[in-house]
Amino acid sequence: MKRFRFALQSVATLRELRELRARENLATAIRVCERTEIALADARARRELLEDLVRSGRAFTLRAAEHVAFLCALRSAAEEESAAERAVTEAHAARDRRLSEYYDAARALKVMNNLEVRARATHRLASEREEQTTLDERASITAGRGHRYLS
Fold first, then answer.
1. Which residue, 15, 63, 106, 121, is most buried by CB atoms nearer than 10 A?
2. 47, 81 contact by CB (below 8 A)
3. How far is residue 120's CA from residue 78's CA, in Å, rounded to a whole number?
4. Which CATH architecture group holds 16-150?
5. What DSSP character marks residue 8?
6. 150: CB partners within 8 A, 6+ apart
């Protein structure tokens, strides 16, 4: 019997590569999400610190120029925080797209693997049938020879 050769091997290889790339892209997107979430936490901490400074400054007498500088810094920190929130939202959206791409690639690879398993089973069954046919022919030839000598 011929050796097994999967006819769609090139397609399976391409799908394996696509799944690998999708997995790598997903890992990159997850790392970007983590970094943006850390940046958001830092921006929130800076804004909260400045808010505390402004509140504590109101309890004491501050010069107007210092108060204005703190308020400008607070506004800047708030803008940085909102930019960080937008970046987190965009990173999560990108991560979700990459996750969807990965699921699609993994599903396509699984289909190819299932096709290969079925093709191997079909090949094995055909091989076993051919082997059984060969054994039956040999047995009938041997039986025919033995019968001729007995007559």
1. 15
2. yes
3. 62
4. Orthogonal Bundle (1.10)
5. T
6. none
- Do residues 106 and 19 make contact, with C-beta atoms less than 8 angstroms apart? yes
**Distance in angstroms (rounded) separating the CA atoms of residues 4 and 7:** 9
Asked if 19 and 103 touch (Cβ cutoff 8 Å), the reply is no
**Region of residue 66 (left: phi > 0; alpha: psi -120 to 50; beta: else):** alpha
Are 80 and 42 in contact by the 8 Å Cβ rule? The answer is no
What would the DSSP string read from start to end of the chain? -PPP--TTHHHHHHHHHHHHHHHHHHHHHHHHHHHHHHHHHHHHHHHHHHHHHHHHHHHS---HHHHHHHHHHHHHHHHHHHHHHHHHHHHHHHHHHHHHHHHHHHHHHHHHHHHHHHHHHHHHHHHHHHHHHHHHHHHHHHHHHHHHHH-
pLDDT < 70 regions, the chain: 1, 57-62, 146-151
- Residue 136 has a pLDDT of 84
Q: What pLDDT, on the 0 to 100 scale, is given for residue 62?
A: 65
User: Which of 119, 116, 45, 102 is CA-nearest to residue 78?
Assistant: 45
